[in-house]
Amino acid sequence: ILKDPELREKRIVVRQFPVATGEYRTTFKELHKMGIRNIIIDVPRENIHKVLKHAQQVDMLSDYHNYFFTSLDVHTVDLEDYQYGGTNISGFNLVDENSKEYLEVIRDWQNSPPRYPNWKGESLEQLAKTEVGLVYDAVRLFAKALHDLDQTQSISIRPISCETEEPWIFGNAVTNYMRMV
User: Fold this and answer.
1) pTM for the full model?
2) For position 38, what pLDDT does the model report?
3) Does the keyword section mention Transmembrane helix (predicted)?
4) Closest CA to 91 of 56, 40, 44, 28
């Protein structure tokens, strides 16, 4: 953003929130005095509510303010408290929570008995995290690559040692297939 030639004529202010204290109001007061209304915020998902609450407390949540959160899990945060304030609150979302496959996976996870004795079950908020979605996609891609490769040639699996650096005979084929998909 700072190197974009089209933005050279615009004023860009960079501030870092005090990490140790978790106090965001001071920074918002400073931005308010400067008249800053378009704000990109990079905080962990767990801090988003506190950030918005502090912004609200210093009159930085209005029709004139736009917030963009860089957290890929902003879609898991309940923003209902800020729904009618007029503030534009945005972020990226890599998980399509309305897709048929996603809804089936969530239903299956909720209806399946725990496979581990100490597992308490995860909330939908935890299951919808981007990290979980990426791992799920990676495992499905790997499984599909193995399945499809096994259809064209018989894959034999023999014990593999973690101590040696001998590559798996089908490793390149699986990797190449995964790159194509």
Assistant:
1) 0.73
2) 93
3) yes
4) 40
